[in-house]
């Protein structure tokens, strides 16, 4: 589904990704772990189409097509979804209007009839219940004044409503207490399916207790330095977090 | 002040009043002459005057005659259509064409008891029981008030008896059409104790109108009364509009002014309220969407004269093209006005590199124990917000429009009259790319 080859990416002349190779097949869940500033979020945002990053070499293909040539909205319509690490507040725009606009933009792209207000509300209410979100948040401005947990749940709600083919979750677990983490994990597990791929960008192993990945990759200084199965995350966990700062362990286990 | 000899001074006032309302009445003639003398002596304000630093009125002085038309043209058909729609909304509607009341297009027959609404010209020509103090403006906030006083053709006089609640808004629809017309409306609202009403003043010009409109609105808010004044400016692209809205508030009264500007070449609104007795609440809201070379200047002033009054001011402007906005928000807390609670914010969104905003909150405090705050921001559309929306499938245009709509929504949401709220919402979205799509989703 997703094929990244020798990807090099710069921002402001500084190289952040330095030759990433990654293949993700439909039905798989991949976890990308690594220390701060290793390039995890850059990769996640780049895949969603953030234009501040410059690709200097390499390619990304999604369902056989050149992903990098597509606008962010085209990617979304084609089924790429990024759950943001820091969901953006949109003052003055209700969450309901936002969700409806997004859903109908994608349905329109696929020449499906737009949902009317009733059908939309029925759908949203049901999905909100599933991700444990208070219905009152529907009438509030997008993410404005939401707690950290509410913002993350709002991302999972969008994921559930928009039903993408490729979901990228950028540190969706950070800042969540254990109950919220379980709800988010349930929301993601709900989405697992044979024709869908999920990439989890995470700092900690703890999310992977609830969402068991098919593959784990360790990103350090813009390169994938180690790939393995679900056990790799456990190995990293056992060795503590010092390696996050020093990178020593990466050398050790690499 | 030294007066430059200019073409407008060739207007011999004595030739004009014969055709203006109230010409049979000596006191009205005298008031007009006094006002004109005052205006002539002062002349047009220049940019050297602090209050007029950013707004160039030379476009008006270059126009030639300042005298109003005697005979109004027929209302343009689009205005007739809107008037028809408005009366269908059940509004108490008064239509003015180039400053003259058009009784045929108006529907003011079914006013409730205790509400008197008349054309100012009818009152001046009839056995006017209009007090001279209301006609000759006591508070001459700008020199344009004097010019209005000299040339006023017509307007509306609304008198609401004590304890009368007017559920349906009074809708004053003022149409401008034609070349070189000067329009001088004067609106007077007298709200009795504990009365309540909403007055909407809607200025609309045709695309080819080259009008200079100089309007004055005076509002007396009686004790415990609740008055809301909404002003919507949709002047033609060449129109010049200079106006004052001036309220006087009595004990425990509430006055709300909402100012919306969507078009017009150059617009200046002076909006003031005087909180004369304790317990008053004053709210000023404003929203403008500018483009091309439009110029819109709001000078607001709230005078906290009595103690224990509250004022709130929220202004937002969206500027595109080479437009220019000016916001000057003055709050004066006078000596003795203790326990004043005043809060003001203004936010501006610049959509182009050529657009410009001059914004100045101005608090002058001469009392103790007061709570006064203000905040101003000038910004652009957030890149992160645009990316967030686009990453959910919204195309770039729609994403921009949604963000702009969100920015304006803070002001739109507070409009109490559903008809007006929807109208403003649509006026905004009609101007935004893909606005129709957003409209459908609301």
Q: What's the topology here?
A:
The complex is a heterodimer of chains A (about 250) and B (about 450).
Chain A: E1 2-11, E2 14-24, E3 29-33, H1 40-48, E4 54-62, E5 65-66, H2 72-77, E6 80-83, E7 90-94, H3 95-109, H4 117-130, E8 141-142, H5 148-162, E9 166-170, H6 178-191, E10 197-202, E11 215-220, E12 223-228, H7 230-238, H8 242-246, H9 248-253
Parallel strand pairs in A: 3-10, 3-11, 6-9, 9-10
Antiparallel strand pairs in A: 1-2, 1-4, 4-5, 7-8, 11-12
Chain B: H1 26-42, H2 58-61, H3 77-88, E1 92-97, E2 100-107, E3 115-119, H4 120-125, H5 132-135, H6 143-151, E4 154-160, E5 170-176, E6 182-183, E7 185-191, E8 196-205, E9 212-221, E10 226-234, E11 240-249, E12 254-263, E13 266-275, E14 281-290, E15 295-304, E16 310-319, E17 324-333, E18 341-350, E19 356-365, E20 371-379, H7 383-390, H8 396-412, H9 418-431, H10 435-441
Structure report:
- The complex is a heterodimer of chains A (254) and B (442).
- By secondary structure, chain A is an alpha/beta fold.
- Chain A has a domain at 2-88 and 165-253: P-loop containing nucleotide triphosphate hydrolases (Rossmann fold), CATH 3.40.50.
- Chain A is 37% helix and 28% strand.
- Chain A is built from nine helices and twelve strands.
- Chain A has a six-stranded mixed beta sheet with strand order 6-9-10-3-11-12, sandwiched between helices.
- Chain A is globular.
- Chain B is an alpha/beta fold and 442 residues long.
- Chain B folds into two domains: 7-277, no CATH class; 382-442, no CATH class.
- Chain B is 22% helix and 38% strand.
- Chain B has ten helices and 20 strands.
- Chain B has a ten-stranded mixed beta sheet.
- In chain B, β1 and β2 form a beta hairpin.
- The longest helix of chain B has 17 residues, at 26-42.
- The radius of gyration of chain B is 21 Å and the shape is globular.
- Chain B starts with 25 loop residues before the first helix and ends with a helix.
- The interface between A and B is medium-sized, with 32 and 29 residues.
